[in-house]
From TrEMBL:
SUPFAM superfamilies associated with the record: Glycerol-3-phosphate (1)-acyltransferase
Keyword DNA-binding in annotation: no
Entry keyword set: Acyltransferase, Membrane, Transferase, Transmembrane, Transmembrane helix
Catalytic activity, EC: 2.3.1.51
Protein name: 1-acyl-sn-glycerol-3-phosphate acyltransferase
UniProt source species: Roseibium aggregatum
Domain of life: Bacteria
CDD domains: LPLAT_AGPAT-like
Claim: Acyltransferase is one of the keywords in the record: yes
InterPro entries found in the cross-reference section: Plipid/glycerol_acylTrfase
Chain segments annotated as transmembrane: 7-28
Molecular function, one GO term: 1-acylglycerol-3-phosphate O-acyltransferase activity
Amino acid sequence: MVFLRSTLFQILFYLVTFVLMILFAPVMLLPRRWGWWVVPTWSRVLQLLMRVFAGIKVEVRGRENLPDGGFIAAMKHQSAWETVALIPLFRSPTFILKRELRWIPIFGWYTAKFKQIPINRGKRSEALAAMMLAAKEAIAEKRQILIFPEGTRRPAGAEPKYKFGIAHLYRDLKCPVVPIAHNAGLYWPRASWKVYPGTVIVEILPPIEPGLAPNAFYERMVTDIETASDRLIEEARTARKPSPVLAEVDTRRKAQPV
C-alpha cells in the first residue's frame, strides 16, 4: 500500500508541478512582487497532494520567532519536503541554491524571475563573493534568505555535517539567523521513492541576534538545530503508527563514533 500511494504521489508531484509552471507562466511578464503569489500557491497545492495521497500532515511550532523584515532562515535538510513545504512561512524568501538548478527548463526561469541566489560550487571564492553581494541586496530589500547549512540532504539520524559559510553570512549581513528544525526525513526520506504517512513537526527556534563571533554563532546554531531535530525524531516514536525509518535512525546512531 505504501509503495502504491508513494508512486501515485510521486507522479502527481512532478506532473502537477509541470502543469502549474505552464499555467502560471504569464507571471513572467509581471514585476516580481506581483507575481510571487504563484510560488506559495504551488507549495500549498503540493502539500495538499502530500496530505491526500501520501498521508503527510504538518504541525508548525514557533511562528512567533520569525522576525519582521530581512533575516536568514537556517534550515535542517533531511528531505525534499522542506524545499517545498516551508515556503509559505515567509513573506518574500530567496533560496541559496546550486547554480545548476537555473539550467532546468521552465523551473530555472522561475528561479531567475524571483531572484533566487545561485552559487557556483566549482569556483569557491568567486561564488562566495557573488553570493554575499546578492544576499546583501536581499536583506536590504527586507527579504528572507533560506539556506540549508549542511549543503546537501542528510538522512534522519545521520551525523550532521554543517558548512561554515553561513557564519560568514551572519557576520557580514549583521541580521538575525532563525534556526529551523524538523523531522521530515522520517516521512519523505532522502533518495527514497517511498513516502510514509505521519505528521511532520517543524520547530522555528528563537532567532540568533547579530553580534556573536562567527565560531560562537556556528556552535550555537548547530547545537540549536540538532538538539531540536533529535527531540522531534524522538517525539515521532510516540505516534500511533511510528515511521519505519526510525529503525534506520537507530542503526545510523549506533554506527556513529562515540
